Every structure is written in C-alpha cells, then in structure tokens.
Amino acid sequence: MAQLADVLIQKNKIDGSPKVDPSSTIRLFQPDPVDGLTLADIFVREVVQNIFDLSSDVANTIYDVRAKFEEVVLDQSHLSELKVLVGARGVKKLAKYWALTKCNESSGLHKLINGDSVPCVIVSDYTEATNNSRKGMWGSIDPLHYNESDEETSVFHDYCLATGYGAEYKKKGGGTVGGHGIGKVANAITSKDHFTVVYTYTNETNQDGSVGVHKCIGLGVDEHKDQSDMTNADFEEFGRTTGWLYIANHHSRDQNNPRELRGEAAIRLAACFGIEPRKPGDFGTTMCVFNSKVRLNEVIDTYHRYFGPAH
Fold first, then answer.
1. Residue 244 lies in a domain
2. Of 138, 141, 205, 287, which is the most exposed, with the fewest CB atoms less than 10 Å away?
3. Which of these, 253, 44, 21, lies nearest to 142 by C-alpha position?
4. What are phi and psi of 199, to 5 degrees?
5. Residue 24 in domain
6. What distance lies between CA 145 and its chain's CA centroid?
C-alpha cells in the first residue's frame, strides 16, 4: 500500500533568516512561578479559550461548550500504522530530526521504536449547542488545492501555521489569531516532544455534495537550526530549518510547506495517535498532545478549578 502522508521539515532560504523562529516563543512561553500557574493551568486555560473562540461567530459572545479530556497510551500497533502511513523512511526521518533538535532516546517516538508505550492527552470539543454556523475548523492550509477561496479567514490555516506573534503578522490582518497561536504553543510545551496532532471534522461540503470533512495534521514546534549547528549530512537532508515539523502532504505550490490530510487519510493519521474518528453530525475538533508532560488527573483538577465540572 502506498504511503498517504509525508514528514515535512519546513526549510528556509540559505541566504535569509527565518520568517518566524518558534524556538524563542517556546523558550519564553513557560510556566512562571511568580504568577503561580502550572503547566497544566496554562494548557487547560488556553485550550478552553480556543474552544470558546470557536463557539461563536459573534464577537464577545460565548455559548455553552463541552470539553472532554482523556488519556490514551500509544503502543506498537500505533507505530506500525504510522509506518504504513508515512513509510519506514518517514519514521526514520522523524526520529532523526527529533534527535537533531533536542530529543534523544527519551523522546516519545524513540520510546515506541524501542518497544515502550507513550502516554498522551486527548482533548475534544463538543460545540453542537453553539450558534456558530461553522462547526469544527473551517478552511485549508492549501485552499487552491481544494477549490476553496483563499480570501476568507481560515481557522485551520491560522491554528496550524500562525503563531499569533509578531507585528508583521498582525499587519496582515492576523491580530485576532493570537489566541489560536498561543494555544498552539501551550499545546507544544505540554508535549515532551513539542508535538501535537490536530484532527477536525467540519460541516463543510465535499466536492461530491456530501456534508462532513475530516482533516488532520501533525504539528511539531522546535528550535531553529543553522548550518553551523548541524553535520554536513544533516544539513544536506534537512537544510536550514525554521523549526516547524509536519506530518502532512506537500503544499501544491511549495514542497517545503504542508497541506492537511483529508478524508480517509486524515482518519488514519488521527488513529495513529489514539484519536477516534467522529461520526456523521458530530462536528468538532480533537487534539492529541503526544508524550504529554501532564497526566489526566492534573488536567481534570485544573479544569475543575477554573471552569467547573470536568467531563
């Protein structure tokens, strides 16, 4: 069976600096003993804020939403499916890149390769009771490929590509995306590998006229690497990187940029990370924090403290 996805390392031109260096954001966006917030506090508050953001298309209006937190343990069956999805070379590339940036044999992928299991936190939103006409994360990272308008604001694009930081980004009309960007960083620092998987099932219309679009992408955020930080062999393979890593397809215009998986491929990628596909009509978003630093009891305690009854 042919592989359905690829491992993409977003490269930058040799003669220019990275457009956005996520490593500075990762280093700065950490729990601060002064304000008394734990990592679980930061993670839960930002995740729930993002769910609130998606609950309404009316400014400053929030509807009842439900968030579900679960803990899953990935094992050899998940690794085997990932190898089918991205190929053995893709898994090797993931392992090599994580070793290059910061991780060693203690990273989640290396643990799976060595036969160990990996705990992950799964977060799902349920916004069926909200008035937002758009359920789930609408839009695309590569709208032209899917015959979609590239002029409309794409929540999926903003969440998966934008950091929400930087004056240059805000000049382009991205001032309201900060919550999504900060949320992505909060998700990243909660993972020991700075890696999450986002799966969303939306009430958009497919090309055949049916309603219900499955989308999924793997998101890695890590430190920028220059040529001086790498061996010649690593530089030849990865090039100068901006620190972004994706499990996705290649963008239709730029081989260094990602395009989300859709349909059956999206469902299969989600399953590799313990995410169950949503049934027809159950629109919303589910995220896996891979190799999580926080355990489920910490997450539930925080949810109780800030938001009331936890499910």
1. yes
2. 205
3. 253
4. -120, 130
5. yes
6. 21
Helix (H, G, I), strand (E, B) or coil at 174: helix
**Domain with 137 in it:** 6-307
C-alpha span between 73 and 274 (Å, rounded): 8
Cα(22)–Cα(26) distance, rounded to whole angstroms? Answer: 6
Closest CA to 143 of 134, 131, 155, 133: 155
Alpha-carbon distances, residue 8 vs 112, 219, 220, 250 (angstroms): 20, 10, 10, 8
116 token code pair: 């160990």
Quick: pLDDT tens for 242-283. 778 899 999 988 777 899 999 999 999 999 999 999 999 899
Number of structural domains the chain divides into: 1
For residue 1, being part of any structural domain is answered with no
SS3 40: helix
Structural domain includes residue 188: yes
**Structure confidence at residue 64 as a pLDDT band (50, 70, 90):** low
